Amino acid sequence: MSDPARAEFPVELRPALKRAEPAALARFFDVHYERVLAYVRRLVGVQGEAEDLTQEIFLHVLKGLAAYDPTRDPRPWLFALATNKLRDHWRARAAHGGARTPSLEADELIGALPGVGPAPGAELDQREQATHVRAAIDALPEGLRATLLLRLDEGLSFEEIARILERNEVAVRKRYSRALAALREALGALYDPAGGGA
Amino acid sequence: MSAGREDSPEQRELEELLRRVPREAVDPEARARARALFLAAGRAAEASQGEGPVRSGTVMDGASEQAFELWLARVLVPEGVQPEVRARARAAFLSGLAERGGARPPAPRRLRFFALALAAAGVLAVTFLLPEAPRWRVELLTPVAFEEEEFGLQDEGRLASSLERSGRIVTREAPTRLALSDALELELRAGTTVFVPVLPELDGGTPIVFELEAGECLLRTRAGWRGNPLFVRTPFGDVRATGTTFGVLVTPECMCVCVAEGTVEVDGGGRIERVEARTSLLVSRQGDPARTPFSSDPTSPERDHLEPLQAFEREP
């Protein structure tokens, strides 16, 4: 999960963000950096690459402030910028002959996800459980993974996710349900409806 | 959903209630967990109001899906970020503000000079006037380990930065002091292992949970403490305090909570013991918790535990 422990971006600072006032920008960064980095990291899979991309996304924010509507929560707008940056990144990688080009259109599961559950009888602490769950999320196709992350980690509405991923809302709901089902199957015995961590 | 959450008193109330649920409130990433559960509950409400997830042979039924979402929200814990990486990205972002002028149409030569000078001043201003100083202050008497990395006496600043993310700190043969400006002080006695959480906003509402795995930790809230619920989680139960000075000692056999000032609540398996000032509570795996007033007898075996706490309390 990204760092949702951080506070929301204050509504009263939205106009100042639009005007690119330094204090508002600093707060904007502090509230969102971990979240965006976690999202990007889960989609590109390489820590260093994710850090560079996240830095670029925030620089892109500065260029794109003219398009920001200060009457709205900046988070969907920011994640839309991040998602577009990821698309550009994958396109560039494809142009340089990357072995497999990831794509947010990729939402077809080819066979079942690899099982990530622990050995029978193993007792896991919450961090170990989280590691297994993260591994299962990482094995989802990018389209399902992005939908799941935006919904599960960020709590965005299907409508907001649909705008970010440039899909219709029904398709996003479908993707989300399929992602949950695939994840549930991959987790096997690790999923304990009565438990859930320390 | 997010916009609705900001505007809806009912949802705010639900979030507040979730914060008060003891189990969620005392988890290491307590606010994160509460938030995730809140969001999951919000998703369930949204799904029941709307058309709900589209179902086919490859998806779960609605109830199973909601139960699974709640489980995921409980299990997934936030991932840390290297403070150096964050600081670098932050400086680049704030410095980038000054560079935005470069994309505008060319200006007359003199104006361009002023624009460049202003941009340079802007870079300096945002870099030096808005630095993100570590919130922790660290005093080391001997080296300590944080997340298995060694920090020597010259590394207090680096350790303070590292403490912005969560991790396990292990003290050696001397105490280590951690302080949050004029809000909170911790003394980790020699041979202590404690898990320090991701530091939340000191907003008076977000819980802060230290996990004491072994050894002894003294805590004191100061005048600047905004009242965030403060917990020490141990294998024997959770110790909750607001506005107080107390010490918690953990051994493999027992836990001893000594309160110098204020009160604390010890929650061991659902049974809550309130401990008043000048009182110790001994909790072991066998038997009921034993409560004793502070002893003034210099030969008392508990003096080893009380004296550092009382010295800690007396410090200005």
Task: Give a written overview of the molecule.
The complex is a heterodimer of chains A (198) and B (316). Chain A has 198 residues and is an all-alpha fold. Chain A has two domains: 11-95, Rna Polymerase Sigma Factor, Chain: A, CATH 1.10.1740; 126-189, Winged helix-like DNA-binding domain superfamily/Winged helix DNA-binding domain (Arc Repressor Mutant, subunit A). Helices cover 60% and strands 0% of the residues of chain A. Chain A has helices spanning 14-18, 22-44, 47-64, 74-95, 126-138, 142-152, 158-165, 169-187. In chain A, α2 packs antiparallel against α3 (47-64) and α2 packs across α4. The radius of gyration of chain A is 18 Å and the shape is globular. The two termini of chain A are 16 Å apart. Chain B has a 16-stranded mixed beta sheet that branches. Mean pLDDT of chain B is 74; it is low at 1-7, 17-28, 50-57 and 101-107. Chain B folds into three domains: 2-75, no CATH class; 83-128, no CATH class; 136-314, Jelly Rolls, CATH 2.60.120.1440. Chain B contains nine helices and 16 strands. Chain B has 316 residues and is α+β, with helices and mostly antiparallel strands. The two termini of chain B are 48 Å apart. At the A-B interface, α2, α3, α5 and α8 of A face α1, α4, α5 and α6 of B.
